[in-house]
Amino acid sequence: MTPAIQSKRPVPSSHKSKEYVLRLAKEHDVRFIRLWFTDILGFLKSFAITIDQLEEALEEGMGFDGSAIEGFARIDESDMIAMPDPNTFTLLPWRPTENAVARMFCDIRYPGGKLFEGDPRHVLKNNLAKANKDGYTFYVGPELEFFFFKSTEAPAVLDTGGYFDLTPLDCASDLRRDIILAMEEMGIGVEYSHHEAAPSQHEIDFRYTDALTMADNVMTYRLVVKEIAFKRGVYASFMPKPIADRNGSGMHINLSLFRGERNAFFDANDRAHLSKVARQFLAGLLRHAPEITLVLNQWVNSYKRLVPGFEAPVYVTWAKHNRSDLIRIPRYKPAKESSTWIELRSPDPACNPYLAFSVILAAGLEGIECKQTPPSPVEENVFELSDEERVRRGIAKLPASLGEAIERAEGSQLLRRSLGEHVFRSFLKNKKIEYDRFCRAITDYELKTYLPLL
Fold this sequence. Notes:
Elements (H helix, E strand, L loop, with lengths): L17 H10 L2 E9 L5 E7 L3 H7 L1 E4 L13 E6 L5 E2 L8 E10 L10 H14 L3 E13 L21 H15 L4 E6 L5 E6 L2 E2 H21 L3 E3 L13 E9 L2 E2 L12 H21 L5 H4 L12 E2 L7 E2 L13 E3 L8 H17 L17 H6 L9 H9 L2 H28 L3 H7 L4
Parallel strand pairs: 1-6, 14-15
Antiparallel strand pairs: 1-2, 3-4, 4-6, 5-6, 7-9, 7-10, 7-11, 7-12, 8-9, 12-13, 12-16, 15-16
């Protein structure tokens, strides 16, 4: 929930050479370099090398044991190579400036040099390459919501503020400021920050950029938020729904395709200023939304957020203005090319951004390839329509549980193609294990409700 980004201009990625990285490391007294990569569930993994190994790492990569990483190799294929991407070299501002610490994201390879098909970053690169073949560059601007709590033990809030509240200078206000300063020090552009609707809930929005850079930025952001909070003695959580009767945390994603410097979603002659490409992309997203929900909302807790009454989408609809729909077309600066984009409102901030951006792009591109047409927009509140009216108008629902999302995903050829066979199978296996554990767990609700009665 946000005023959205009003200056949607592509921000080019930097291009750093190996020599530039070596020189920068020397100039800033870098002693340690953390090599980052992401597992299939979106958890950041890392190991550190010293400055003496940096040149070798940039040339040949660094070996590590991948057998313990979810969705990576089997035990007999445990040897992996982490190949640093020099474009992602940056200092960690929360570490000391003397004997400084830097980080680089890595692409994961087999020892022979072949890219590992189970690496989420590789999955996104594959999907972006398909878009590039058609002349498109995929730009995204996510809006990540999160909570500050006093500890990991209970969702005890730090403030009682609401949407856009200007709270007094307390711990939460200073935390948000420190997070933004740290992000900007790392070269990550921030456009907005504000208090969200629930107590102790906040949102920081990124400046629009290409999808690969943004996926790296999302991973960095989630760590920065937790690191800064930890230093202040509080806990930051991206859990989708930590408080039962309050809004959950979403990650609305603003999307567009560009051809060179031109926004392919813009048409000055269309009443809504949406091009045919934008409408086809929109149609693809709507058609495949139920089956890609498992990737966009991958946890049991994700489905406690996707319920009526808390401004999260439940039905597969779109609108030009309505905020209750799955997809919205923001209208902050009508008729302006750089401000024409699609806002997808279902993802939550605990997803794997590499996989999420991949399946969103794949669904939209299929809509373009098949020249699909979106249904009519639903400008009235979809939650106030009767079940019969929704059926009559062909309005589908998103999955209501992780189990239902798994069922929808299992038969999805789009997911199989966009994730690749390795990630598709491994991701489903992980989610089935999680859902089975959840189904066998005895919850506090059951104990409090049934134990005294039965």
